[in-house]
Amino acid sequence: MRRPTIADIARQAGVSKGAVSYALNGQPGVSEATRARILAIANEIGWRPNIAARALNGARAHAVGLALCRPARFLGVEPFFMELISGIEAELSARSYALLLQVVGDHEAEMGVYRRWWGEGRVDGAILVDLHLDDSRVPQVEEMGMPVVVLGHPSAAGSLVSVWADDRAAVRETVEYLVALGHRRIARVAGLPRLSHTAIRDRAFGEVCADLGLDACPIVHTDYTGEEGARATRRLLSSPERPTAIVFDNDIMAVAGLSVAQEMRLDVPADLSIVAWDDSPLCQVVRPPLTVLTRDIPAYGAHAAQRLLALIDGVEAKPLEDEAPRLTTRGSTAPPA
Amino acid sequence: MRRPTIADIARQAGVSKGAVSYALNGQPGVSEATRARILAIANEIGWRPNIAARALNGARAHAVGLALCRPARFLGVEPFFMELISGIEAELSARSYALLLQVVGDHEAEMGVYRRWWGEGRVDGAILVDLHLDDSRVPQVEEMGMPVVVLGHPSAAGSLVSVWADDRAAVRETVEYLVALGHRRIARVAGLPRLSHTAIRDRAFGEVCADLGLDACPIVHTDYTGEEGARATRRLLSSPERPTAIVFDNDIMAVAGLSVAQEMRLDVPADLSIVAWDDSPLCQVVRPPLTVLTRDIPAYGAHAAQRLLALIDGVEAKPLEDEAPRLTTRGSTAPPA
DNA sequence: GAGGGTCACTGGACCGGTTCAGCCGAGGGG
DNA sequence: CCCCTCGGCTGAACCGGTCCAGTGACCCTC
To answer: What's the number of domains chain A is made of?
Structure first.
């Protein structure tokens, strides 16, 4: 049982393929009566456009690509990507666009994937995430001429359209809040130092600490895993000038840090306040529940997808500054004992 | 600057399109010298096959579909899906297949997506996850004639090829281990009751408890969220016949359960032993670290992808019983006080 | 040296749509 | 009444590949 084609519809309706094409695409060139008849037949025999045939005429592929280049074992760790994907998805599926996903090992492989997808006409554009400082992918996709939206600060995005949130403001809000509580020794457990948003947060952290006249505000870099988060926390809490508050760059490290503190017989929040970047069920489930920086990650993804679809449609898309992360206070922060 | 086509190559090489096609596809019909010349030219001008044109000739779409039908907010919660996807991916990208992903709201929408993908020639097959009891999707995809591999027990997969793990054995191993430690009152905090693997685990749990002559072995069903896991735990621990061990159906509920126990001033593992289904950084990070049932989820996904590619190639694929989850003991299980 | 077979390659149909030039008939204006 | 316009439709080219039938050259064989 072959898939019905417009030729089948044309035969049944007694018109030409061309007329059917006009009718199905809502274009002028057929009378309303004929259009209705054709649509009815198409519907009845369950016709679906063959995207391959459409794509062949230089039309859109109706798909966008996303290549994730964190190692697989880190991907599962954070809910970030899954939430991002579901946000992207929501926007795409509303427009009947599909999402092509690939997990790659490094940036070189990632570019290979984009080149292939773009070269094969499989995608109409792509979303770039996890920008590095001086990211080599940016000039490469610029040269390819593929529509691309970058998730991250415009400073690293070259001429590409970016969707970003004001991490600076979030860092400032957090530190000011902790200082208002009475903290003077605040530390930061950061993610991968080569990521551009890590650099931005690091800088903002240093600036705010200086502005507020705080003493040494140590930053420890990690790879986002619980193990490294725990190790960093242990190191910070063993130092002579033990911080009274730590801001973690993700939820899993914050929880690991909480465990370390409790292991060391420190009370959270009396002896140590903890803030996590990005909320998750995990943060709400532990005792005490964690004060977090909340972002609407699906919205973030949806906005990026929106911008990308605009670009693909040839509409000039403006960079978008998304909502800054908001501080949601819970039981893990309090004035230092 | 148009993308190069085989016609361009043919012109440059002074041969016909047909010859170029044979050369590029490694088919007989051209001399080795000509083939080499054509490949060199193709390489030089950066030719890539246009999959649309290929697909039009009834060839493969070189993509497989995965529609996830859990609500977005649950997807981020568990690392399961991300790990599964990265496993599927690993297998697919080795064969240059792409993964089409869509997050849908319910089974009806999911079938709509599959119908569209299949109808439009976008995918060559799909992977079905989270089988329900009497899953309506099974007969529907059977009727569509689309190659499909099911992740789940064959009993729910109809005539479809399935990849599954022996959850029965895992449940048995876990309960026997707890009983060997001296536990007699064991409870299970299960996932969604309409999922077929929940039913299988439920049944196995009941059988093993009966076999070992245990008293009432309560099962509480949840939606996999931390909140419901906490509520279920609270209920179980407040009952007159308080269990001394609880087996949770995922990591997030187990951690929530741990928090509840600690809130109720119960010592884990002295007063309550905890086992979680599926390991995650989360389980290793909490205090005490959780005893878990470990599965190699990426392998699980890779095997499913492998089977699916075989099916697509027209090779008859056999169902595969994957490794059963293995018990990894950590600090959360001990003899009851 | 005629017949047969193989090899390397050509030309063109074909996949399922889109799109454009052109045709026909009806209606309107002069 | 004729000419022009325009709506509604047809026929065919086209997108970039695949693949099949056919062709000509060459070699082998009896």
So the answer is: 3
* Mean confidence (pLDDT) of chain B: 91
CA neighbor of B80 nearest in space, from B224, B290, B193, B188: B224
Q: What order do you get walking across the sheet with A320-322 strand by strand? A: A320-322, A161-165, A148-151, A125-128, A63-68, A98-103, B98-103, B63-68, B125-128, B148-151, B161-165, B320-322
Peptide bond into B288 cis (omega under 30): yes
What SS3 class is residue B142?
A: helix
Pair (B72, B172) in one structural domain: no
Which CATH number does the domain housing residue B35 bear?
1.10.260.40
Q: Is there a domain that residue B284 lies in?
A: yes
CB A95 within 8 A of CB A84: no
Q: Report helix, strand or coil for B273.
A: strand
Contacts of B89 in chain A (CB under 8 A): 72, 101-103
In angstroms, the CA B200 to CA A271 distance is 46
Whether CB of A50 is under 7 Å from strand C: the answer is yes
Question: Within 7 A of a protein CB, which nucleotides of strand D?
Answer: 7-21
Q: B96: buried, middle or exposed (CB in 10 Å: 19+, 13-18, 0-12)? A: exposed
B222 and B120 together in one domain: no
A187 and A275 share one domain: yes
Q: What is the CATH number of the domain that holds B174?
A: 3.40.50.2300
Same domain, B16 and B117: no
- How far does B316 lie from chain A, in Å, by closest CA? 21
Euclidean distance between the first and the last CA atom of chain B, given in angstroms as a whole number: 76
Q: Is residue A271 part of a domain?
A: yes
- B55: in domain: no
Residue with tokens 């596809």: B25
pLDDT tens figures, B55-108:
888 888 889 999 988 766 666 667 788 889 989 988 998 888 889 998 888 899
Structure token digits, residue A270:
């009396």
Q: What is the distance in angstroms measured between the alpha-carbon CA of A25 and the sugar C1' of C21? A: 20
Q: To the nearest whole angstrom, how far is the Cα of B211 from the nearest Cα of chain A? A: 35
Domain extent at residue B271: 167-294
The verdict on residue A138 lying in a domain is: yes
User: Could you report the per-residue pLDDT of B18-54, keeping only the tens digit for each?
Assistant: 999 999 988 888 899 999 999 999 999 889 888 889 8
Does B287 lie in the same domain as B171?
A: yes
